[in-house]
Structure formats: structure tokens, C-alpha cells
Amino acid sequence: MRIRDALESDAEALATATDRPRGVVKNMIHDRSVRVAVTGDGEDSGDDDKPAVTGFIAFDVRGKTVHVTDFDGDEQAIRRLFEEPRRFARREGMSVEAVVPNDEQTGAILEDAGFEQSGTGPRFEGRQTTRYVIDSAELDR
After folding, report:
1. Distance set, CA 28 to CA 83, 98, 112, 124 (Å)
2. Which of 109, 53, 52 shows the shortest CA–CA distance to 86?
3. Which residues pair with 120 in a beta bridge?
């Protein structure tokens, strides 16, 4: 698996993963920093070798915080993808924040990545969310 910047050609795969219209996903790719996890090398002409998107993460910056605005993928992809906003925040001396629906598995992944619960977040699509943060000082460790 490798991580790369999302391309407009990834919009269909991301739209399918998020159950959103392709146009909305294209806008996300243009408006935010979006990274994708891909498998396969695409060097052969067979479909089995075509790179497949296995996850993505979108983030942007407001103030002195990197906000993870969306992500999806299998556990391994999510773990690797969350390194991207952390790396950006560390380089810029910023904190990182993610608000996610209450989900024990996702919470455990974020906590393993160094995030700490910081209280409840806003309701999203009728579901309660939890706010996770990494202070900029913690990123230097």
C-alpha cells in the first residue's frame, strides 16, 4: 500500500466509498488536502494490477489546527492515512483534530495514533460524535 495525493480520477472510487455524488467528491479533492491509500502498481494491463483505492483522508487548516474533515477505508489504510495530517501539523507547529461518530474501533485507531478524546462533538446525521485531538506539543514526541 502506498499513500499519494488524491487525483480527480479517484473521485469515482471515493464517491462510492462515501455514498456521495461524484461532483461533491471532486470538490472535496480540489478544496481540501486529500490523500488516498492505493494498492496494486498498475504496471501491467490486467485489471488485477490496476491501482485500487483502499482508503482516503481529507483535511484542511483553520487557525492553528489541522482539521480532519473526512476519512474512510480499512483499518490498515486508516492508520497509515492519519499519519498525513499529523506530519503536516508537526511541520507547521499545529494541533490536529478529528470529530468522528461514536465507534469503538475508530476510537481505538485514533487513540493508537496519539489522539486523545476531548469531549463530545456535534451530532452528525443524527449520530453522536466524539472530538479527538493531538496538541502540537504532543506531535513533537
Report:
1. 19, 17, 27, 18
2. 109
3. 130
Number of Cβ atoms within 10 Å of the Cβ of 33: 17
Question: How many domains does one find in the chain?
Answer: 1
pTM of the prediction? Answer: 0.84
Domain containing 131: what range?
2-139
| DSSP SS3 for 12 | helix
Cell, residue 138: 504532543
Q: How far apart are the first and last CA of the chain?
A: 26
Per-residue pLDDT of the chain (141 residues; tens, 9 = 90+): 999 999 999 999 999 988 899 999 999 999 999 999 998 765 443 455 667 899 999 999 999 999 998 898 888 999 899 999 999 999 999 999 999 887 778 888 888 888 999 999 888 878 889 999 999 888 766
